[in-house]
Amino acid sequence: MDNLLPSSRIIALGIFLACFTLLGVGFYMEHSMHLMPCPLCILQRIMFLATGCVGLIAAIHPTKELGIKVYATIMLITATIGAGIASRQLWLQHLPKDKVPACGASLDYLLDVFPITEALTMVLTGDGSCAEVAWQFLGISIPGWSLIGFIGFIAITLLQIFRPKI
């Protein structure tokens, strides 16, 4: 079965290209469709960026089996964090209207005023802007599509980690 799979470097390059394509779609939606990202959307973008950058490094850097597993583990961690953030936003979007938290300050303001750990805690709590469904495709909102992407990256990185000798 291993012969049917592309090399680990090709898979890592694919992850890089997919992450940066998703980031490009996000920037298109922001600048052309005028859909402003909420704080949780920005954190998801950061996790796509982190996953993609590790994918690029893994694609460029020739490594043996241990190196491949290390890169895949790092991508697994970033994709899992991203999936958690997307899940949190989906949860907020499915709250009843009376349970949605009030809108808070922008991410820039929070990072300027509070220490980073406190600002991240506030952001991960989410607010009303994170619960707003501004766009859907096939009945799935933006964080839903992000979650699908992160789950795909998780599956691919698990394949890399548990792949037979390369």
Structure description:
The protein is mainly α. The protein has one domain (2-162): Bromodomain-like (Up-down Bundle). Helices cover 70% and strands 2% of the residues. It contains 7 helices and 2 strands, in the order H-H-H-H-H-H-E-E-H. It has helices spanning 8-31, 39-60, 65-93, 107-113, 116-125, 128-131, 142-162; strands at 136-137, 140-141. A two-stranded antiparallel sheet has the order 1-2. Strand 1 (136-137) and strand 2 form a beta hairpin. Helix 1 (8-31) packs antiparallel against helix 7 (142-162), helix 3 packs antiparallel against helix 7 (142-162) and helix 4 runs antiparallel to helix 5. The longest helix has 29 residues, at 65-93. The chain is elongated, with a radius of gyration of 17 Å. The N and C termini lie close together (11 Å). The model has no long low-confidence stretch (mean pLDDT 83).
Summed up:
The chain has a single domain, classed as DsbB-like (Bromodomain-like, Up-down Bundle), CATH 1.20.1550. Helix content is 70%, strand content 2%.
Topology:
Layout: H1 8-31, H2 39-60, H3 65-93, H4 107-113, H5 116-125, H6 128-131, E1 136-137, E2 140-141, H7 142-162
Helix pairs in contact: 1-2, 1-7, 2-3, 3-7, 4-5
Biggest β-sheet: count, sense, barrel?
2 strands, antiparallel
DSSP strand count: 2
Question: Counting H and I runs of at least 4 residues, what is the number of helices?
Answer: 7
Total of domains:
1
Described by its quaternary structure, the protein is single chain
Order of helices and strands: HHHHHHEEH
Strand-residue proportion: under 5%
